[in-house]
Design brief:
It is built from 13 helices and 19 strands. The chain is an alpha+beta fold. It has two domains: 208 residues; 160 residues, Reverse transcriptase/Diguanylate cyclase domain (Alpha-Beta Plaits), CATH 3.30.70.270.
Length: 497
C-alpha cells in the first residue's frame, strides 16, 4: 500500500518546468487579454472622442452662422419695424424714401450688399445692389430661393400679427428674439451663394397700421465670401476654415429651394490621437509588468477622467462666456436676468442696453482685427466702470447689456450711464498705431417699475435704446422718457479719427 500510494502521488505532481510553463502561459494569456482589451478600449475611446469633437465643431459652426444671420436681422429690424417705412412703402410707395432712408441705412450703416422689396402680391418692386436701387417691377420664380424666403417671412408675420387701431401690427420682440419674426435662409442670388434674412415691414409706435392681407417683405443678403469666412473664424478659430462650391465638406450649404450651393470645411480636431499616445505606452508596460499593470491602468484611467472632467468644465465655462470679449454671453446673461426678474418684487434692478456708434466705420476702414480690438477694449472699460455693481454681457456684434443689481435709482443710474459713455468714448490706439474712438448709445429700464419679467424688461430697455439712437446717438434714455427732450449725454467724447 505504501509503495502504491507513493507512485500515485508522484504521478499527480507537476514538474517545476511544466509549472513554469503554465504560469508563463497563464501570464502571457492575461497580458495578451489585458493588452488587447486596453487597445480595444483605446480604439473605441479615440473614435468616440473624434466623433464627439466633430459633432461639437459642427454645432459651433452652425451657431456662428446663425449669429451672423441674427445680426443682419437685427440691423434689418431698425428700418423694417418703423412707422415711416409703413407710411412710405406699404401705404404710399415713395421711391425717394426707399432709396435715401431705407436702402441707404441698410447699406451705409450696416453693409447689406443686396436688398429686395416684395409687395403683397409676391412681386419684386425694388432691388438694390449696395446703394444702387432699381425700381423695375418683376415677377420671380415661385419655386426660387427669393420667392420661398419671402413666402416664409409672410407666414412668420402672420403667426405674430396682432390687431391694432385702424388695422394690424406685429408683436414686439427683443433683438435676441428676432428669429421669431425673421426668416433665415441661404439663397443663390445672381449666381452667388448668400446668407439672407427676411421680415415684414411693420409699424413700431402704431401711429399707422397695416391693412388686411399680406405685408411688404424686405430681404437682405450678404455674400458668402472670404470676408464672411474670416468673420466666422474670428469666433471659431478653426484650422483651415474654407468655403467651396463643391460638396463633401463638413457643413453642406443648402438653399431655401433645397439646392446644394457648396460646403464649409476645416481641419477638425483629433483628440483620439492623444488618447492613443497614452494607451500604447501603457500597453507596452503591461506586456512586461503584469503585476503593476492594474495599478498603472487605474492611474491612467483616473488621469483621463480628470482630463475629461477638466475639459467639460472648460467647455461649460466657454459656453457662458463670449470668446472675443470675455464677457457673459447671451445664455449666461439670460440666466442672470431671469434670476433677477424672479425676485424683482423684493429686490429692484435695472437693465442697460448699449449699442456702439461708428463701429462699422472702424471695421470698414481698418478691418475686422481692428474691430475685434475695439470690442475687447470696450468690454474691458465697461467691466471696469460697472465693477461690482452688476454683470456686463455681449449679445451681438457691437451690442452690450448690463444688469445692474447694486442700485436702481435714476440718479446713480444716470451717473453710471455718464461714466460708461465717457469711458467708452476715450481714444483707442489700434495695432497699426492709428488712434480712433467709438461712442455708445444706452437704453435704461428699471424693474419692476418699467416692466416685469426677463423678456419684458429686456424689450423695454431695447425700446429705450432705439429712442436714444433715434435722438442722435451718444446718449442714454430711460424707459418712459422716449419722447422727452432731456437725455444723459457723454461729456468730452471725441469723434472717430
Amino acid at each position: 500500500m505504501t509503495a502504491a500510494s507513493g507512485s500515485e502521488g508522484e504521478g499527480t505532481q507537476v514538474s517545476p518546468r511544466r509549472l513554469s510553463r503554465l504560469v508563463l502561459a497563464f501570464a502571457a494569456t492575461l497580458i495578451g487579454l489585458s493588452t488587447l482589451s486596453l487597445l480595444y478600449v483605446g480604439r473605441i475611446a479615440s473614435e468616440e472622442a473624434d466623433q464627439q469633437a466633430a459633432v461639437t465643431e459642427r454645432t459651433l459652426f452652425v451657431n456662428a452662422l446663425k449669429d451672423r444671420q441674427s445680426l443682419i436681422a437685427r440691423d434689418q429690424l431698425s428700418v423694417s419695424r418703423w412707422d415711416r417705412s409703413v407710411k412710405y412703402i406699404t401705404l404710399k410707395f415713395r421711391e425717394a424714401f426707399i432709396e435715401e432712408e431705407f436702402v441707404g441705412s441698410l447699406w451705409f450703416d450696416f453693409g447689406h450688399d443686396r436688398t429686395f422689396l416684395f409687395d403683397p402680391g409676391g412681386e419684386i418692386v425694388m432691388s438694390a445692389h449696395e446703394d444702387r436701387v432699381d425700381f423695375t417691377r418683376r415677377t420671380v420664380d415661385p419655386a426660387g430661393d427669393l420667392a420661398l424666403i419671402a413666402k416664409r417671412a409672410v407666414e412668420r408675420h402672420n403667426a405674430n400679427r396682432i390687431a391694432i387701431a385702424g388695422g394690424y401690427g406685429q408683436k414686439q420682440v427683443t433683438s435676441s428674439e428676432v428669429g421669431r419674426i425673421a426668416e433665415f435662409a441661404i439663397a443663390e442670388i445672381d449666381g452667388e451663394p448668400m446668407i439672407a434674412t427676411a421680415m415684414a415691414v411693420v409699424p413700431d409706435d402704431e401711429e399707422v397700421a397695416l391693412p388686411d392681407g399680406a405685408p411688404f417683405i424686405v430681404i437682405s443678403a450678404k455674400p458668402i465670401d472670404g470676408d464672411l469666412v474670416r468673420d466666422l473664424n474670428s469666433q471659431l478659430d478653426f484650422a483651415d476654415l474654407t468655403f467651396s462650391s463643391g460638396a463633401g465638406g463638413k457643413v453642406p450649404l443648402i438653399s431655401a429651394s433645397g439646392r446644394a450651393l457648396g460646403s464649409f470645411d476645416w481641419k477638425g480636431a483629433a483628440p483620439g490621437s492623444h488618447i492613443w499616445q497614452v494607451v500604447v505606452p501603457v500597453s507596452i508596460l503591461l506586456s512586461s509588468l503584469l503585476a503593476l499593470a492594474s495599478l498603472f491602468i487605474v492611474h491612467h484611467i483616473r488621469r483621463l477622467s480628470l482630463r475629461l472632467e477638466e475639459s467639460e468644465q472648460r467647455n461649460r465655462a466657454l459656453a457662458l462666456r463670449d470668446p472675443l470679449s470675455g464677457l457673459a454671453n447671451r445664455l449666461s446673461f439670460g440666466h442672470a436676468l431671469e434670476a433677477a426678474a424672479e425676485k424683482a418684487q423684493g429686490s429692484r434692478f435695472a437693465v442697460i442696453a448699449g449699442d456702439l456708434d461708428r463701429f462699422k466705420a472702424i471695421n470698414d476702414s481698418w478691418g475686422h482685427a481692428a474691430g475685434d480690438l475695439v470690442i475687447r477694449t470696450v468690454a474691458a472699460r465697461l467691466t471696469e466702470v460697472v465693477g461690482t455693481s452688476g454683470l456686463v454681457g455681449r449679445i451681438g456684434g457691437d451690442e452690450f447689456v448690463i444688469l445692474v443689481d447694486a442700485f436702481s435709482d435714476r440718479v446713480r443710474l444716470s451717473l453710471l450711464a455718464s461714466q460708461i459713455m465717457t469711458a467708452v468714448g476715450q481714444p483707442i490706439t489700434l495695432d497699426n498705431g492709428i488712434t480712433t474712438d467709438v461712442g455708445i448709445s444706452l437704453g435704461i429700464a428699471i424693474a419692476p417699475d418699467d416692466a416685469a419679467g426677463a423678456n419684458a424688461i429686456m424689450a423695454t430697455a431695447d425700446r429705450a435704446l432705439y429712442a436714444s439712437k433715434d435722438g442722435g446717438r451718444g446718449r442714454a434714455c430711460f424707459a418712459g422718457d422716449e419722447g422727452a427732450e432731456s437725455h444723459t449725454h457723454a461729456h468730452g467724447a471725441s469723434h472717430a479719427a
